[in-house]
Amino acid sequence: MHNITTGIDIIEIDRIREAIDTWDSKFLNRVYTQSEQDICKQSNASLAGRFAAKEAVLKAINTSVPVCNWREIEILASANNRPLVKLHGNISAECKERGIKGFDVSISHCRDYAIAVAVAQC
Fold first, then answer.
1. Which one, of 107, 104, 117, 110, lies nearest residue 50 by Cα?
2. Options 3.30.572.10, 3.90.470.20, 2.60.120.560, 3.40.50.12780; which CATH number does 4-121 get?
């Protein structure tokens, strides 16, 4: 039998827009990898969706260790544009230690909000 854990997050798209308006590339480069920025093509809704996905992944991991580097959780796109989670650094090591083999992530957004669900496969 396989175990799964889930995480969900929702964010106002305007919060991401405001952060970009205030901090510009400092915010973008702190939170998103260059590949994520390229995929999103400066779409606030897409960036918010990826931010929600990163939060959802953290909740699915159920870690007590705060993440200092948002770029350790990378939300890319598969060949058919489904979200694809790639982990780096401390988060990758923690997932291996916990026996997490991968994630399934779904992202959606409307005019005001972006939401993401992450399922960790153990």
1. 107
2. 3.90.470.20
Helices (H), the chain: 13-23, 25-31, 34-40, 44-61, 89-98
The predicted-structure confidence for 9-27, as pLDDT tens digits, reads as follows 999 999 999 999 999 999 9
Strand partners, 75: 85
What gap in Å lies between CA 82 and CA 38, rounded to an integer?
15
Question: Phi and psi of 102, rounded to 5°?
Answer: 175, 180
Query: In whole angstroms, what is the distance from residue 44 CA to residue 114 CA?
Result: 10
CA atoms within 13 A on the CB side of 108: 4
Q: What confidence tens digit (pLDDT) does each residue in 29-47 have?
A: 999 999 999 999 999 999 9
pTM, two decimal places: 0.94
**CA angle, 82 then 28 then 52, to 5°:** 45
